[in-house]
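Suppose you are handed a protein chain with no further information: no name, no annotation, nothing but its sequence. What can you learn? This example shows the usual starting point.
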Amino acid sequence: MPALPMSWPKLLILDCDGVLVDSEPLACEADAAAVQIFGTKMLSSAQAMKRFTGKSAAYMRDVLTHEFGVKDIDGCMQKKDDILWGLYREKLHTTPGLLAALHKLREAGIALCVASNSGHQRLEHTFAVTDLRAFFGNNIFSAEDVAHGKPAPDLHLYAAARMGFKPTEALVIDDSPSGIEGASAAGIRSLGFIGTNRLGKPWETALMAAGAQDLISSFDELLLKLGLCGKFQSCTNDNTASL
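A reasonable first move is to predict its three-dimensional structure. Written in structure tokens, the prediction is:
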């Protein structure tokens, strides 16, 4: 891909699910299992992937209630979470190359934070079973912290302000059109991450239409765009870089 026509950011705002961790298949498996118990209409994992990727919990609750006949939405969401936490403990891993990339970004002096439509409980479970806390500390922001999650600009603006940077000094990495749209609305540059994309070219097209400056399929590509590795050198071939 061509070099990114943007200056080096002072702050990198990363989405969590689908960027830091490849969690969407696990979440969709849990969604389908919970709806099978509580709903009057079946939900497949593939349907969950298309409907809920990048969406907030509030959006999901509304869809399950009105389209899938879930009467006890609180019970359904709790069952979904119980199933998901078990899957996290068994199967959740960071995205290939991520830890090495975060190490290089931190060495370069770029501030790091997370801005996710997931609730704090899900984020806590994610960070409990990975090595990510060492890079982000408490700089983990959720849609629960603002009035409106992505695609509204609130969350990205909140994250930038909490980190002490202007929107023009930040760069968002997100795998969903709603996240990219939120960055665009906030006046923050963005890259669409497609390294975990299972929805094909239409999803990539949607990311660009939402305002992404470019697409990246790996963290090697991110480091290359930022000038933190050589053109023919793999920067992140070790996903267990020291923290």
